[in-house]
Amino acid sequence: MAQLPQIHSVHASQRGAMGAPAPQRPERPALLSLVNWPFVLVVALLVGYGLLVCWSAVYGDEKYSFNRQLAGVGVGVVLMVLLWHFDYRRLANMTTALLVINVVLILSPHLPVIGVNAKGAQSWINIGMQVQPGEFAKVTVVLFAASLLARYQGTLDDWREYCKVLGLALVPFACIMTQPDLGTGLVYLAICATIMVMGGAKARYLLITLAAGILAIVAVFAVDELLKYQLEDGTWEYRLLKNYQRSRLLVFLNPEGDLSGDGYNLAQAKIAIGSGGLFGKGLLNATQSTHGFLPEAPTDFIFCVLAEEMGFAGVVVLIALYAALIVLCLSIARGADDLFGMLIVMGVIGMWLFQILENIGMDVGLMPITGIPLPFMSYGSSFMVVNFALLGLIGSVWSHHTVQGRKAVS
Q1: Are 345 and 264 in contact (CB under 8 A)?
Q2: pLDDT at 261
Q3: How many CB atoms sit inside 10 A of residue 408's CB?
Q4: In what order do the strands lie in the sheet with 121-126?
């Protein structure tokens, strides 16, 4: 990889007016200063709320194990505490290593013996238990993109450097599409896009990239139409996108056009949300999911379960908890001592916002159906562990603020 500028080890807030090191600041109290209590409280409420809804969604369904979800929370809490006390700044100059880790993680399901093919995607590995490395790569994608952009000290206005950064940022997406896992790939793109915007990439370059991305999507669908071929049973197969991927991406434009497939799923999702009314039907009374009308209810359509059981009031509570979490994270990002820390937090915020908007949006017919889970709500132990790991990174950024920086934020 081409040589990139190194991140300065002395933070801006630690320098005097003439560049000399500032006087040593006093140590913070050992206990209370290490815990951001409002942040922990909001996380605890959100996780507890998610476990309650998840328990109701999986109750009586032998396909899912609520104990596994609890185990994911337990492992996640331990990992969060470890990362909270870890100094994230040690990773600031490990861009190349983080990229290599990303590639190895994402491509590991293709390895013989341990690779597992499930539902047409090579996304899992079996190491005594089945895990999804692409989920864990979300953590390293955040760290990699933040490390990469932090090297430019908040200004990325050279076209050649921008193209180099863009090319490197697209590597995780290209790797995940070999599985293929479009939903996770879109999450990677959301992380990198957020970090590039906050990392000082020139607005004109970003707009050109966005336009090129839209044109690329149109081109994929157009070329697929030209290359499609007919199978022996009379159905058509596409070469670039699988039929189910194409259907999921397009069904929200015309949900009535495929009521026997993904259009049916969307219709049932809307029925579940609407039937909840103001205060819902109560826990364990979500008839759309318990009677099998709503597929993958504990994972992709967990929001529908919440809306049906707890109604509009329950949805408002969820949105309020998400809003509180995002506001607290923004405060931590604003008080970060260095650009690397700020970009880590903003990358996580961008990921969560994208997942929230996409998951809820696809349930109400405003976004394509991509199978992206809802943070802290959807069933999945790997997904839960990853979210706790990201919380730990945010806690690390917060706990390594200076006293003056902490006071400026509060």
Answers
A1: no
A2: 62
A3: 12
A4: 115-118, 121-126, 130-131
17, with CB counted inside 10 A (0-12, 13-18, 19+), is exposed
Contacts for 295 with CB less than 8 Å, ≥ 6 apart: 265, 268, 301
- Helix, strand or coil, per DSSP, at residue 79: helix
Q: Which amino acid is at 69?
A: Q
**Structure tokens given for 77:** 């809490």
Angle between helices 381-399 and 133-150 (to 10 degrees): 30
Helix (H) or strand (E) holding 344: helix 339-363
Distances (CA, A) of 60 to 265, 276, 377: 21, 21, 18
Q: Is the pLDDT of residue 144 over 90?
A: yes
Type of residue at 408 = A
Structure tokens at 318: 């969820």
Residue with token string 């969060």: 80
Whole-structure pTM value: 0.85
- Above pLDDT 90, what percent of the chain? 52
Pairing status of strand 236-237 against strand 121-126: unpaired
Q: At what angle do helices 95-107 and 133-150 cross, to 10 degrees?
A: 160
Structure tokens at 287: 């008839």
Nearest to 133 by CA among 178, 193, 90: 178
Say if residues 92 and 340 touch (Cβ distance below 8 Å). Answer: yes
User: Which residues pair with residue 115 across a beta bridge?
Assistant: 125
Check: CB of residue 309 under 8 Å from CB of residue 56.
yes
The DSSP 8-state label assigned to residue 23 in this structure reads: P
Q: Residue 201, SS3?
A: strand
pLDDT tens-digit series, residues 234-252: 777 777 777 766 776 776 6
pLDDT by residue (tens digit) across 44-83? Answer: 999 999 999 999 998 888 788 899 999 999 999 999 999 9
Q: What are the tens digits of pLDDT across the range 291-301? A: 777 778 888 89
Omega into 180 within 30° of 0, i.e. cis? yes
Q: 77-106: buried (b, 16+ CB within 10 Å) or exposed (e) per residue?
A: bebbeebbebebbebbbebeebbebbbebb
Q: Which pLDDT does position 10 carry in this prediction?
A: 41
Query: What's the rounded Cα separation, in Å, for the pair 54 and 380?
Result: 10
